[in-house]
Design a protein that fits this description.
Blueprint lengths: L1 E7 L16 E7 L3 H5 L9 H4 L8 H6 L6 H16 L2 E14 L2 H8 L30 E14 L2 E11 L2 E5 L9 E3 L7 H4 L7 E11 L2 E10 L11 E5 L6 E6 L4 E2 L2 H10 L2 E9 L2 E3 L2 E3 L2 E9 L5 E20 L5
Parallel strand pairs: 1-12, 2-7
Antiparallel strand pairs: 1-2, 3-4, 3-17, 4-5, 5-6, 8-9, 9-10, 10-11, 11-13, 13-16, 14-15, 16-17
Length: about 350
């Protein structure tokens, strides 16, 4: 699984300031592809997760004494690997409703743009203007830009190929029917995250990471263990993301992952923007998998937040994209695990 950042011109902020300000669109491509295709290896060349040896849990002594053996890190990783074997061999065909809410706050962009207004302009009140008698006064009336989209979404996997088809049903509250529609989001373009856990917990990938138990929480009625994963020093270069995962200790199912931004492709674009804003960029990417059929977890939510932090730690959130999947109808969900 990898995340790539790229530029595009497809959808400028048309509603922003009636066209007086038009920054280029930045596209964050969440291409959450089959880990097998990304790695370029076959199951026959996989390494056993026992080669690297699971790392001991940093749990406190009182946790060690009370936790059942099934909750040990080694047992959890074994169950997660078994779940990923099912997930990677799965074939499915389903439809659902995809609801997208996107918010963009361009205040910092506009502030930088206003700093370049020529003296003498009718809306300029600063040094060099003929009517300047005091401190510079800048009044910003820029509001947050909000977009909403609703799609009928179909996802089919046969063999190693995933096919996604969308019919647009609604845009900004207005009904419409657009077959074979493309995503109309301004900031984030994404693909299915369903196979994302494989690149982290798949048996052949586990030796590339150092795992530790970070805590225990609840997601709904389910008791889960939070596992922290970091790249193992000396591991082969990889585009697979890593981070924290919320794992059901009873089944090994992965219910949620918060991905690290470290391996986001072309993340230097965020750093350049941070330099322009004189702030530190922070990207939050969270995938949730609450939909379940025949033991396979399907994405129920994707959340991406782009923020920039002052030295004090105060964050300015420039954009948020929230994608919710609901009203699932499953036609086929099968898997084949071969040892």
């Amino acid at each position: 699984m990898f995340i790539q950042l790229d530029f595009g011109e497809k959808r400028a902020y048309r509603s922003l300031m009636a066209g007086t300000w038009g920054p280029r669109r930045i596209i964050l491509i969440l291409a959450l592809l089959p880990a097998l295709a990304l790695a370029g290896v076959s199951p026959s060349s996989s390494r056993s997760s026992r080669q690297a040896g699971p790392q001991p849990s940093p749990a406190r002594p009182d946790q060690r004494s009370s936790a059942p053996p099934a909750s040990s890190l080694e047992a959890l990783l074994a169950k997660a690997a078994e779940y990923c074997r099912k997930l990677e061999s799965s074939a499915f065909d389903f439809v659902c409703r995809e609801e997208i809410r996107e918010t963009i706050d361009p205040k910092l962009d506009v502030a930088k743009d206003n700093a370049r207004v020529d003296p003498g302009s009718t809306n300029y009140l600063g040094p060099g203007a003929s009517n300047y008698f005091g401190p510079t006064l800048v009044i910003s009336t820029v509001k947050k830009v909000k977009h909403t989209f609703v799609y009928d979404y179909q996802c089919v996997r046969a063999g190693r190929t995933i096919r996604e088809v969308r019919t647009e049903l609604e845009e900004n509250g207005k009904r419409k029917v657009v077959p074979n529609a493309e995503l109309q989001t301004s900031v984030v373009v994404f693909g299915t995250a369903l196979l994302g856990p494989v690149g982290l917990f798949g048996e052949r990938f586990q030796p590339d990471y150092v795992f530790a138990i970070a805590g225990r929480e609840k997601i709904g009625p389910t008791e889960v263990v939070v596992i922290d994963a970091k790249p193992r020093p000396g591991a082969p270069p990889s585009r697979n993301l890593y981070g924290q995962a919320w794992v059901d200790p009873a089944t090994g199912n992965i219910l949620k992952i918060e991905w690290s931004e470290d391996r986001v492709g072309r993340f230097d674009i965020f750093f350049k923007r941070g330099e322009l804003f004189k702030r530190t960029p922070r990207l939050t990417i969270r995938s949730e998998f609450s939909a379940e059929k025949n033991g396979i977890r399907f994405p129920s939510r994707l959340y991406v937040e782009e923020a920039y932090l002052k030295e004090s730690g105060k964050a300015f959130v420039r954009s948020k994209t929230d994608v919710v999947y609901k009203d699932f109808k499953f036609f086929t969900v099968t898997f084949d695990v071969r040892n």
